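Hi everyone,

Forwarding the result from last night's run.
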Amino acid sequence: MHKTQNLRDLLAEFVRTRDLEPKMLEQKVFSVWRKLLGVPLGEKTVPVSISSGVLKVYTEYPPYKKELLLLKERIMADLNAELGQPILTDIRIDVRQSLTSSSPHTTAPPTRVESTNPIPKNTRYVPTPETLEQIEQTVVDVTDTDLKTSLRQLFASQSTDKS
């Protein structure tokens, strides 16, 4: 437990000195999206980027875009409450075909956006399996689940891999 506490203190200092807390809070949106929206909305929509407080979300299904638009204020309020501060100021929803290479009926989270259009500048990239393995090796001794999840997201978001 003492090692974990020292690591937690070290990581907290690292995050504070590098002003990474706002980015870590933004990344939390991606990890809580499905849980907050539930089935099927959380599974059929994909948050892909956050820029200047605007969350961009893709879906393959126009009816889900309409539902997100109707619930936008409540979703932003719920996400901001989960984050503990008003990070999100707007949600933009786009309909995109083929969000995943798997069937649209799968419950697995989408891994990347496939499109004939260029990938938007602020799209979250998925690290290579090798990078994911390095991240796992880095966080293997962290016992606090929330901290471990946040670190994984932080390291993945800072990855230079482009899939």
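The CA atoms of residues 7 and 155 lie 16 Å apart.

Cheers,
N.
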